[in-house]
């Protein structure tokens, strides 16, 4: 009964992707299908296994890694399918999968040319980590101010959705270093390309109501850094451009008539969330000050 209730809560496309991920990974492991399903650059080039650039992101081997990724992938698939719809989600996954595969093949060929190590071309790569990194960037675009509690609330250990792609990459690179697979490990290679290519897609390519891509300031490249670091960068940039912008307005609009600008609904929603967050923090500080005064 519980399993059926959970399946009913998952949208159709997300359900299909999860079933393919679970049963496909098990079949690849059981029947040793890695060369035919996962991305092996040497075989993809020499034997023309071009379908690998898409199938490699639908499964994951070893199985323990698949088990770790089932829950986050299912949650993110469901969230984005409800927000975007079926076709935009498929286009996003297809772009991230294809672009990350091509980028990985190109980099590994360059490394092989430099190091002359054939193992670089015959390491089976699974693209689920690239997809996970891309999904984190997409969720960051939707709800950057949302907080996730890693531990129970009483511990106060929380993380902003805006910072999740950065911490995800940091964990992947650290794991790669610990596993002694800095050069060929998918723990850093595919997540890096997944985050980067998904940002490019969402920034410049994705079809939106008011054009293509999210060109807002809140989704610039430096926003992939933690909010505190990115905020400092934004403050420095604003200080640098403040005088230039003021003089530009005076030259173009001498009668103090400013143009009417249109705002993307997504950007307007982000600004509303930031304003509400700042208001809540201010009210909380006022309440704390009032309580302290009453105690005195």
Automatic annotation (TrEMBL):
Superkingdom classification of source: Eukaryota
Chain spans, region Disordered: 246-270
TM regions (residue ranges): 12-33, 53-77, 89-114, 120-139, 159-178, 184-202
UniProt-listed GO biological process terms: retrograde vesicle-mediated transport, Golgi to endoplasmic reticulum
Subcellular location as annotated: Membrane
Name of one Pfam family that matches: DUF1751
Primary location group: membrane
Alphabetically ordered keywords of this record: Membrane, Transmembrane, Transmembrane helix
Protein name, as recorded: Rhomboid family protein
């Amino acid at each position: 009964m519980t399993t059926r209730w959970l399946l009913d809560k998952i949208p159709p496309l997300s359900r299909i992707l999860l079933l393919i991920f679970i049963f496909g990974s098990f079949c690849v492991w059981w029947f040793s299908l890695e060369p035919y399903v996962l991305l092996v650059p040497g075989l993809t080039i020499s034997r023309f296994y071009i379908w690998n650039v898409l199938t490699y992101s639908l499964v994951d081997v070893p199985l323990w890694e698949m088990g770790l990724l089932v829950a986050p992938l299912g949650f993110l698939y469901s969230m984005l399918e409800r927000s975007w719809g079926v076709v935009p989600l498929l286009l996003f996954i297809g772009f991230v999968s294809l672009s990350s595969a091509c980028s990985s093949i190109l980099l590994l060929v360059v490394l092989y040319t430099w190091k002359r190590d054939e193992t670089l071309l015959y390491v089976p790569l699974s693209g689920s980590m690239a997809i996970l990194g891309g999904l984190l960037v997409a969720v960051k675009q939707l709800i950057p101010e949302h907080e996730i509690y890693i531990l129970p609330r009483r511990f106060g250990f929380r993380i902003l959705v805006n910072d999740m792609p950065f911490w995800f990459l940091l964990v992947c690179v650290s794991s790669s270093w610990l596993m002694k697979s800095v050069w060929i490990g998918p723990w850093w290679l595919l997540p890096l390309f997944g985050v980067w290519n998904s940002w490019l897609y969402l920034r410049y390519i994705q079809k939106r109501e008011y054009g293509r891509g999210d060109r807002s300031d809140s989704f610039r490249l430096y926003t992939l850094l933690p909010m505190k670091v990115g905020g400092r960068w934004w403050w420095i940039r604003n200080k640098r451009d403040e005088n230039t912008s003021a003089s530009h307005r005076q030259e173009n609009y001498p009668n103090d008539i400013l143009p009417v600008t249109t705002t993307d609904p997504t950007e307007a929603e982000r600004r509303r969330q930031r304003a509400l967050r700042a208001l809540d923090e201010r009210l909380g500080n006022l309440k704390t000050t009032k309580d302290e005064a009453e105690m005195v």
